[in-house]
Amino acid sequence: PVQGNERFPKYGLYAYSEGFITQRVQQRVFTGAPVLFVPGSGGSYKQVRSLASVALRKGIDNNWQAHLDYFSVDLNEELSGVYGGFLQDQTEFLELCIQEIARLYGSRGRSIRMFIIGHSVGGKLAQAVVAQPGTRANINRHVAGIVTLSAPVDKPVALLDHYHHNFYDRIEQAWRANRSAPGESKSSAPTSSLDGILFVTIGGGIRDIIVHDGLTSSRYADLHAMTHNIPNVWLSVDHLCAMWCLQFVLVMNRFLFSMVVPQGRGSFGFVEGKQDQLDKAILFLSQPFVSTLDDDDDDDDDDGRKPAMLKGQELLIQHHPEQEDWIEDIRRSFTEKHRAGLERTRVQMIRLVPDKAFHRFLRVEVINSEHSNWLSGCSAVEVYGNSRMCQKATSLTNYTLPVPSSKFDRFGALLDLHALKRVHPAWTHVLVKIPRTIKPVQFSVDIFNPDERVLNLTMPYWFDYRLHTILQDASPDDSFYRINIRGMKHTYQTIALDLTAIACGGVKGTVVVKVHVPWANGYDRYAFHEELNQTTVYIYPPIEKPPEGEEEEQEVPIQLDVHLTPGCKYRIRYAQSFRVSIARIVQQHLVLLPAHCIALLLLAFKEQLSQTAHDDPAFVVGKLRSSLTKPGPLVMLLASTSLIAKFLTLFKAIPRVEMLATPLVVTILVHFASLGVLVIATLGLWGSIAFCANFAHKIILRLIALPIPVMSSTFLSCIHKFPLAIAVLLIAIALTACGGVSLLCAAAVYFVLLSKAYEDYLENFVFHTARKIAARLFGAREQTEREGKRKRHRRRPANETGDELMVINFHLPLFFLVIMLALLNVPSVITWAKNYHYANTLQPDPSLVPALIVLVCLAVLWQLNTPRNVYGYELLAALLVIVAFVSVLYCQVHVYRLNYSIGLVFLAITVHQIIAPKRRDPEMEMVAEEKEQGEIGQQESEEKEAN
After folding, report:
1. pLDDT for 416-438, tens place per residue?
2. pLDDT at position 793, please?
3. Which residues contact residue 830 at a Cβ distance below 8 angstroms, ignoring those fewer than 6 apart?
């Protein structure tokens, strides 16, 4: 139970336990360090099981000395990722949970601090709860750190309602005011500052198709890591796999256990200092040191990173020459394998040779070494037996990095021997120490000139997908290459790097590629492939290159460190990957599709309304499919939006245009994709109306499912005869249930009306065709001409067009707008259905206002015989163009704004149909004048006769 939970009966707080430990939890006895898990959109509190179960078994193995207490929040599996109306309630309940967990620890509850692990939107909730106004200080003292897993931190995946936008904006303002970005420091930090909370963000990588890697980092994060770069994980995980991937679960629990410290008798908590926590996070979740291949002048290395680290605290390694074999090999590149292990400790000596370019860089790698300080340097001036040696050596552990492998413990290092010699002039050798073991061990040494191992390539043009070869035959002794990629700055740009082992000489190929993007901190990525003769690695930037970096493009290319298997000859080729580029565009820019679809539909509708000249007596509506396939609207939208966007940026008072963040190639592809969707949907709808109208009626009868069949058919006939009453019923549904439900029902009713109009058109078409055939067969041409004259002098129908097909053409784009509006509000419908047993009406309802506007307009349009033969269609067409451009400029990211764009279009069309003056028909006026003159003449003759 949670105090104050009366307001949130559908939420709950759980503690995890198994077996005999459950009794302690039922008695509310908690002595470990608390960890609170917050699930994401549609997530369950049971998803904590993988993390908590591993931690529980670790606590049992520790004799319950150091352990974690896992708690989990039940948020009713609400889809908070697509519906933001519940985000504030969830944040307030999470605040109550933190306070309740602190009370569970009794007397030490006031000082207890916990870690919050938030998955997906749960990570954003964890960020929001510490930024709550009013109670921020009380909550912050109980939160030691926040870890987000695959969470859209600074930007949401899609803004489908304004509640999401307000929620993110409020959190951004609170963190900006109370949190310093990494590298910054505030002169006067307030007491409620968020700087004392460790904030770690973790992304899943390319396999996470829901939250792509560019959304998982935050400008306020102390550390950002991707699972494919975390030591001992090395894998990309999908959105849900992040919570149960064993490799990642183990690393996360190791990180949390490393911070557990005793707090009183039999009680444990997390270490207090944030710097200590950050050091542990770097150790377990990131690379402790990243060495670089520097081709600059030697003098620039004196103040570089590597010498600076060497000047710090040095760790000395004691050697025992009587138990070791000291071996110096003059070969520059070689590999030693000992499948049966080593009987004695081996110290491999690598000489420092200054002033020789081919002896500048050293790439060394060891497999299954059981010694952490396996790399060191010293001055080997002492002699033991027949070998030179040194009693003490300085550790170079800060240069070593774990290398991905699924079978072995593998470590590597990249050293600039010339820089090392300048910092330590007395040193003569670098030492690789491999202790005695019965396991199979292997180490490889590769000394090279960096100029010979650096390959440069340029990103091909968007239309170039040819396969290029950058290395035809690598030497079997070469184990390392650096590839610099220039011109790659957009997230959709992808290169497929093909590495093929031509000859391996009996060994199985293993390739490790490390991708480093200079402008994306924390996004370094390892890709490793074992026992494969051919490997393809896909290279892409996780985030867009900042505009200010364009001038430095030649200085900061994307860097690939390729580690090859010694003894294999490799060929390296590359090509632009069309498949992965399209996949990246779909993943990151699919949310732009609704805005472009609506913009193209409005421009096509404008073309339909522009079929009639201003002075024509009768109004004509064009066909939607013909208007869509015209190149004019598409070219106008493509050419004009970029110019308008750049022009609007000159005015600071105008909001920032969203289109500037989208590359031009992506915009063109989204345009054509939207056009294809609309054309296919138009053809499908015409086919449904023409061939499936009767079938659709039967489906609607089934959906109505009234107990008496006569009532169902009566209700269907009411749709045709009394559309105003049906519209009023839909408005009532919107007010009492959910606006999205009423919009879906309105789309079904609209389809029935359109199919009925098409049936009337077919009847009239068949009737008129039969009359013409009869006239030609039976020679009744004169009678037909008389009927035609009589028809011309008759008053036009109420819609003043007399063409049912034109009525369908007019209502077809409106029907599409209703469908799009209903689809945009489907998340509200799903949320209403999931929470129906808690409340009949969705509160709050982001779809209510747009639904009411559109339904009121439909009530008028359905009741009137539209389109009417009136003036003002030119102004209406101009408004449609304006709304189309606004949709592309301001509604691509803020998708919820399209609701109001569609509502504005319906409102304008309805007002125009009501108040616009009728067009004047000269023939009708002449007939009316002749009739009036005839009546006047007849009246005068009657007066004369009377006189």
Report:
1. 999 999 989 999 999 999 998 88
2. 43
3. 79, 82, 83
The predicted structure's pLDDT at residue 299: 39
Identity at 131, one-letter amino acid code: A
Q: What are 341-353's pLDDT values in tens digits?
A: 888 899 999 999 8
Q: Which two tokens stand for residue 202?
A: 């973790």
Dihedral sign for Cα 483, 488, 489, 490, please. negative
| Degrees, nearest 5: CA angle 293-419-430 | 95
d(CA 37, CA 15): 10
Structure tokens of 433?
């120490």
What percentage of the chain reaches a pLDDT higher than 90? 40
Query: Are residues 147 and 270 in contact, defined by beta-carbon separation less than 8 angstroms?
Result: no
Q: What sign results for the dihedral spanned by CA atoms 469, 474, 479, 484? A: negative
Lowest mean pLDDT among 444-458, 819-833, 845-859, 922-936: 922-936
DSSP secondary structure letters along 511-569: EEEEEE-TTSTT--EEEEEES-SEEEEEE--SSPPPGGGSTTTTTS-EEEEEEPPTT-E
| Mean pLDDT, residues 713-723 | 60
Over 80: is that where the pLDDT of 306 sits?
Answer: no
Helix (H) or strand (E) holding 829: helix 826-834
What DSSP assignment string belongs to 446-483?
A: EEE-HHHHEEEEEPPPTT----EEEES---TT--EEEE
Residue with token string 């419908």: 829
Q: Do domains 12-182+196-285 and 453-543+556-585 have the same CATH topology?
A: no
Taking alpha carbons only, the member of 277, 231, 232, 229 closest to residue 257 is: 277
Identify the pLDDT of residue 187. 47
**Domain 453-543+556-585, CATH class in plain words:** mainly beta
Mean pLDDT across 569-596: 92
User: Which CATH code for domain 316-450?
Assistant: 2.60.120
Nearest to 307 by CA among 225, 416, 385: 416
Cis bond leading into 867, ω under 30°?
Answer: yes
State both tokens at 604: 């096509």
Helix (H, G, I), strand (E, B) or coil at 923: helix
CATH of domain 12-182+196-285: 3.40.50.1820
Cβ atoms of residues 604 and 633 within 8 Å: yes
Please choose, from the candidates 362, 365, 337, 335, the residue with its C-alpha nearest in 3D space to the C-alpha of residue 350: 362
Q: Is the pLDDT of residue 795 over 50?
A: no
| 3-state secondary structure at position 98 | helix
**Count of helices and strands (H, E) across the chain:** 27, 31
Amino acid, res. 644: I
Q: Which residues are bridge partners to 35 per DSSP?
A: 70, 115
Is residue 889 within 8 Å of residue 659, measured between CB atoms?
Answer: yes
Domain residue spans of the chain: 12-182+196-285, 316-450, 453-543+556-585, 591-704+713-773+800-915
For the whole model, what pTM was predicted? 0.85
Cα 209 to Cα 204, 403, 583, 673, 762: the distances in Å are 9, 26, 9, 20, 47
Paired sense of beta strands 114-119 and 33-38, if any: parallel
Return the structure tokens found at 290: 């990243």
724 has pLDDT over 70: yes
Of 323, 347, 340, the C-alpha closest to 439 is: 340
* 256 φ/ψ sector (left φ>0, alpha ψ -120 to 50, else beta): alpha
The arithmetic mean of pLDDT across residues 161-173, rounded, is 93
Q: Mean pLDDT, to the nearest integer, of 652-660? A: 67
